[in-house]
Amino acid sequence: MTLSQLVLRSMKKNIKHYYLYFFALIFSVTLYFSFVTLQYNPSVIEVSNGVKITAGLKAASYLLLLVVVFFVLYANHLFMKRRSKEIGLYQLIGMSKGLVTRLLALENTILWIGAISIGVVLGFLTSRIFAMILLRILEKEVLVELIFSIEALQMTLVVFLALLVIVLIQTMVSIRRVSLLTLFTATSIADTRVKRFNGFQMLLGFIGLVMIGYGYYLSTTLFELDTDNVNMLLYKMLAILGTTIGGTYFVFRFSVSFLMNLKRKQKRGHLSIEDVLSLSPIMHRMKSNAMSLTIITVISATALGILCLSYISYYSAGAVAKQNVPFDYILMNDQGQAFLSELNEQKISYAQTNIDLLDVDVNISDLFSNDIPAGISMMTNGTLPIVKLSDAQKMMPELSLKEGEGYVMGYSNMMSEIVKLEKNKPVQLTTSSGEVVLRIRGIKTDSLLVYNLTGGGMTIVVTDVLFDKLSADSTIQQQTFWNKQVGVVLEDRSQLKEVQFIFEETTNDGHFEVTKDNGGRKLVYMESQEAYRLSTLDMMGLVIFVTGFLGLAFLVTTGSILYFKQMNEADEERASYTVLRKIGFTTSELMKGIYKKQMFNFGVPLIIGLAHSYFAVKSGWMLFGTELTAPLLITMSIYVILYSIFAFLTVGYYRKVVSQSL
C-alpha cells in the first residue's frame, strides 16, 4: 500500500473526528478573508470615515488571527492525543517516525488546502453581506458591490499557510518526543481521585471563592478613588483581573473537587449510576481540566463583556444624542432666523423653545460629597450657564423652586460615578455686589442646554426673580456671550434629511459667532441631534461590528475546544459504557448521568463567565452609554443560545457513543 493510499484511507476513517475541526477551520478562513476583503471594498472606503473603518478592520484581522492560532494549535494537540493509539500502531508495524510524520503532514495539508479553498469561496460570497451589515449599522446608504480582492487572497494564503507550517512542526515535534509506550497509554492517562481532601486544599478552594467575591466587590467600587494616589484606578483594575482569574482557577481546581467530594461522602458509598457517570469523571479529570476551563471562562467573560459594552454604546446612541443636544436643532441668540423663515416658507411644522441664558461665576465646592480623586481635573469655581425656572419648566414641568433654591442640571451618569454631588448643599454665585448663596434642591442628569454651552458639564436653574436680578448685573452682562438658546423640534421626523440640508445652508453648517462691545469674540459649532447621533454611530458602529464577529470567533473557539475535549472523554469511556450496557443499563439511564456531567462542563464556565462579564460591565457601563439592562440581557441571551448549541452537539455525540457501545 502506498503512502497516498494510506493517507486517503486514514482520512476516510477519521472524517467523523475531523468534521467540526474542519468546519472551524473553514469558519476561521471565511471570517478572516471577509475582514481583509472589506478593507479593499470600494463601497466601504467611500464612506466618510473610510480610513477609520479600514484601520479598524485591519486591527480586527490581527486579533482574529490570534484567536485562530490559539484554537488551531490547541485543537491539533487534542487530535494528536486522540489518534495516539493509531500512531502507535503505525510504528508497531514497522513505520518509522519520519514516515508517520509525513503521513500526518500530508493529511493536514490536504485538510488545510480544502478548508482554505472553501473558506475563501465562502468569504468571497459573504464579504458583501458583511459590508452591508457594517454600512447598515453605520446607517450609510451606499451601494455595496461584490468584489474579489487579490490582495485579500494573498494575505489569507500567507497567514494560513504559515499557520499550517507551525501545525506541521508541532506534529513532528510531538511524534519525535513521545515514546511508543506513551502513545498507547496517552488516552488512558487520567487524574487520580483525591481520596483524602486535606485541609490545605479546602482552604485553597475557599480562597478561590473569596478572591472572586473580592474582585466583584472591587468592581462595584471601581471609581471610589483615593484622593492622594493617582494610580488607584489602575491598581484596582489590576487587582480585579488578578483576583477573578486566580479565583476562577482555584474554584475549578479545588472548590469543585471539594464540593464533589463532600457530596460523595454524603452518599456514604451508595452512588447511583447517574453519580458514577457525572461525579466520578468530573473528579477524575478536574486537575487536568482546571486550566482549560479557566481559560474558556475568562475568554468567554472577556468577549461577552466587550460585546455588552459596545452594544450599550450603540444602543444608547439616540439617548446620548438627546442628552447632549436636547433639541433637533439649536440656534444661538437671535441668529438663525433665516433657518426658521425657510422652515415656515416650506410649511414644515416645528415647536420652538426659547431659553434665556446667563454666564455667572459659581463656586460649587460644597456640593461634592467627598474629596476629588487625584488625577481627576474638576473645576469647583468657574463660569456656569444659568437658566430661569420658567424656561426649564418648558421641558420639565415638574420642577419647582422657592426663593434661595436652585437645581443642578445635566450632571452626567459618568461623572456622578466618579465624583458624587449632594443635594441640599449651598453654592455661591458671584455678582458685582457680592455673593448670592443658593441651596441646591436637586441634581438632575437631564440636560436643558447643548453640550457646547456647558462644556459637557452642568447648568444651574434659579427662580425667575433671581434670574432677572442677575441679568441686570453689569459684570454678568459683560461676561455673557450667549444670552439665548432656541431649540427647534420637528413634528414630522421623516423630514429630517430635508431640514438638515436647510440648516446647513442657512446657518453656515451650524456655525454661530458673537462679538461683544469690548471686542470679545466667540464662535460655536452646533450639531443637530441627528448629526450627533450619526457621529456616535460612526465611532461605535465599527466597534460593535468588529466585536460582534470577534465575539462569534471567541464563541466558536471556546465551544469547539470544549466539544473536542468531550469527544475525547466519550471515546475514552466507551469501554465503561460497554460494561454498563452488558449488565443491563439502557441508553436512557446512562444518558441521565451524562446530562449532569455536561451541565457542569458547559454550564459552570458559562455561569461564571456571565457573572464575570456582568460585574465588569456593571462597573463601567456609564462610560459607554445611558442604557444597561436591555443591551445586557439581549447580548447575554444571544451568547447563551449560541453557546448551548455546542452542549447539544456534545450530548448528541455521547448518545451516539453510548448507543454504539453494545
Please summarize what this structure is.
The chain is of the alpha+beta class and 662 residues long.
Describe this structure in words.
By secondary structure, the protein is α+β, with helices and mostly antiparallel strands. 66% of the residues lie in helices and 10% in strands. The chain is built from 22 helices and eleven strands. Helix 1 (3-39) runs antiparallel to helix 3 (50-82), helix 3 packs parallel to helix 19 and helix 19 (529-572) packs parallel to helix 22 (629-660). The longest helix has 44 residues, at 529-572.
What topology emerges from the helices and strands here?
Blueprint: H1 3-39, H2 42-46, H3 50-82, H4 84-92, H5 97-137, H6 150-177, H7 180-185, H8 199-220, H9 232-267, H10 273-315, H11 317-324, E1 329-332, H12 337-345, E2 350-356, E3 358-363, E4 381-388, H13 389-392, E5 405-409, H14 413-418, E6 426-431, E7 434-443, H15 451-454, E8 459-462, H16 464-471, H17 474-479, E9 484-490, H18 496-506, E10 511-515, E11 521-525, H19 529-572, H20 574-582, H21 587-620, H22 629-660
Parallel strand pairs: 4-8, 5-7
Antiparallel strand pairs: 1-9, 2-9, 3-4, 3-6, 5-8, 6-7, 10-11
